[in-house]
Amino acid sequence: MKLYLAQHGEACPKDIDPERPLTDQGREEIERLAEFLARAGIQVERVIDSGKLRAAQTADLLAAAVAPLVELETSDRINPNDDPRAFDWEQATGGQDTLVVSHLPFLARLVSLLVVENPDRPMTSYRPGSVVCLERDSDGHWQINWMIRPHLLGQA
Fold first, then answer.
1. Cα 27 to Cα 156: distance, rounded to the nearest angstrom
2. Closest CA to 47 of 110, 117, 107, 94
3. Would you give the distance in Å from CA 36 to the centre of its chain?
């Protein structure tokens, strides 16, 4: 089983738009990321986002490429300051490859919790639009399989 943990794309500052939609650059970066993931053959059975506009927009763009027939889901346990221990990833994923689109610091803490069982031990350095792929081994342990950031994919 794989978990793809994506931070939403670059969002407008709160003082410009309190809803914080994706910026044009954020949208372009997520579109490039979606194309890359599709070319890499990534497919998921579930897509879960936090319900915040920037995460929902990111999830829509990514899902079109990696889960075109999947109905998107929302979780109220994956917001920026939520405790990753409260997110029941086993129940949320149903054992299927899943894309989770959320925020910092939640995502970084979830990676640390799953990989080293300590949400306060930094394991990754997210930037807007980054995706970390975790894979569960046959013993039930999580490992970081790979990480990609939009800037590594170049400019449009």
1. 11
2. 94
3. 15
Which helix (DSSP H) or strand (DSSP E) does residue 60 occupy? helix 53-66
Half-sphere exposure of 68 (CA within 13 A, CB side): 6
d(CA 89, CA 96): 10
Tens-digit pLDDT profile for the chain (156 aa)? 999 999 999 999 999 999 999 999 999 999 999 999 999 999 999 999 999 999 999 999 999 999 999 999 999 999 999 999 999 888 888 889 999 999 999 999 999 999 999 999 999 999 999 999 999 998 989 999 999 999 899 875
Distance of CA 112 to the CA centre of its chain: 14
